[in-house]
Amino acid sequence: MDALRIISEDHNNLWRLATSVDQLAADMESGEPLDVGFFGSIFDYLEQFVERSHHPKEDDFLFRLLRLRSPESAAILDALQADHRAGPDRLTILRDSLAAAANGQLALTTLSQQLRTYTAGLKAHILKEEKQVLPLARTALQKEDWDEINHAFLDANDPVFGAQAQAEFRALYHRIVTLAPESVGLGGHSAGNLPATAPIEAEVLLRVQGMESCYGRIKALKGISLTVRRGETVALVGANGAGKTTFLRTLSGVQPMSAGAIHFDGEDISKLRSDKRMRRGICQSPEGRQVFGPLSIEDNLRLGAYTQPKHQVEGDMEKIFTMFPVLKEKRHLPAGTLSGGQQQMLAIGRALMGRPRMLLLDEPSMGLAPLLVQEVFEVIKTLKSQGMTILLVEQNALAALDIADRGYVLETGTVTLTGTGQELISNEQVRAAYLGM
Ligand SMILES: Nc1ncnc2c1ncn2[C@@H]1O[C@H](COP(=O)(O)OP(=O)(O)OP(=O)(O)O)[C@@H](O)[C@H]1O
Ligand SMILES: [Mg+2]
């Protein structure tokens, strides 16, 4: 159901924005100056995207048909649509307040209060749709309803939702990311273009069969089997302690495997040492980043290339700097001086210095502010669009499954579910357990 997927993606995006606004409101309350450009860009996005596109599509198609099929939905839909109608005025008031605060005519704390009220309303609205309306729509609407709704949401020529409009929304969103202050984003990263179709039929690059691994008497992996095809992005999601990190460490050879087999590019690498696996092209960005704080950024990157011939190192480093300009600026500084998000870029950069044929990423978004999370995922998308094969471990399941071609759900050392990223996102069990919906 494409429309439902689109609506949920929109919600996810809006939720991140609302969380960023909350964070900036808190920053202002603790004395940070007002960032007029950033808030202005957020209001532009909300106005263009939510008011002109997301809401009308819901009103005209999803809600209209749901009213017909399910008369008991009228009360909640009335409330949501009243909210939709009030949206533009609320934004106008916020813009006026922003201007007044910029001129010193309104206290920053008053503005921050108004912003928080707005985001609280936005979040409540999203939750109502996710928890009440969308589940009802799934059961009450008929196939012909979905045909009509999906067609409306996917119509590439639609002036308010088509390809042109989508490109404008992306540009607006990109501006937000660019203008985001240090506390919520690095800024300045270009969004990658996803390839249109997943390489489902591509050849298998990695095949893991029955992998087991133990810590003493505790069996952390109880027979994991999975495959990754060339060019694929595969997400491994699961709760704390499910065994995700253990899986990546066993795969890269730093954690012993007690049973099972690993084939990489047709070769049995089950018994190879970790440095040999790295030479084969399995490179990992570890959990918690683990950059070497006292060493310079350049030296951290060089460490990632220790299995590589010397002559290519400087050239590869320049490529990393093109990808992460902020690292270039700070190349001679100790890595410990970087912010969390920048350290994550460095950890990914260091893994790329090993010229991976398969990149293992362990929780790249962990501990980052919402817009930085967004930015890290943009980096992953860019790598994916360049053809990199990626095995992505994340607790941020929705974001990971969203960019993944396929995913595996891990529970206490066992694979319990697998499917395409979108199948897993729509799976009720996954939504309940990992997406908090
Ligand atoms: N060094 C260790 N010694 C003993 N047990 C460990 C060790 N590391 C992990 N474990 C256990 O192995 C299991 C899997 O842990 P692992 O770190 O692989 O999970 P994870 O899915 O990566 O979790 P998280 O989301 O917290 O990173 C857990 O039960 C954990 O307690
Ligand atoms: Mg882990």
How would you summarize the topology of this molecule?
Layout: H1 2-29, H2 36-69, H3 74-102, H4 108-140, H5 143-154, H6 163-179, E1 204-215, E2 218-229, E3 233-237, H7 244-252, E4 259-264, E5 267-268, H8 274-280, E6 282-285, H9 297-304, H10 313-323, H11 325-329, H12 340-353, E7 358-362, H13 370-385, E8 390-394, H14 397-403, E9 406-411, E10 414-420, H15 421-426, H16 428-434
Parallel strand pairs: 3-8, 3-9, 6-7, 7-8
Antiparallel strand pairs: 1-2, 1-4, 4-5, 9-10
Bound molecules: adenosine-5'-triphosphate and magnesium ion (MG).
Structural commentary:
The chain is α/β, with parallel strands linked by helices and 437 residues long. The protein has 2 domains: 2-179, Four Helix Bundle (Hemerythrin (Met), subunit A); 204-434, P-loop containing nucleotide triphosphate hydrolases (Rossmann fold, 3-Layer(aba) Sandwich), CATH 3.40.50.300. Helix content is 56%, strand content 15%. The chain has 16 helices and 10 strands. The protein has helices at 2-29, 36-69, 74-102, 108-140, 143-154, 163-179, 244-252, 274-280, 297-304, 313-323, 325-329, 340-353, 370-385, 397-403, 421-426, 428-434; strands at 204-215, 218-229, 233-237, 259-264, 267-268, 282-285, 358-362, 390-394, 406-411, 414-420. The strands form 2 sheets. A 6-stranded mixed β-sheet has the order 6-7-8-3-9-10, sandwiched between helices. A 4-stranded antiparallel β-sheet has the order 2-1-4-5, with helices on one face. Helix 2 runs antiparallel to helix 6 (163-179). It is globular, with a radius of gyration of 23 Å. Mean pLDDT is 87; it is low at 185-200. Residues 244-245, 287, 363 line the site of magnesium ion.
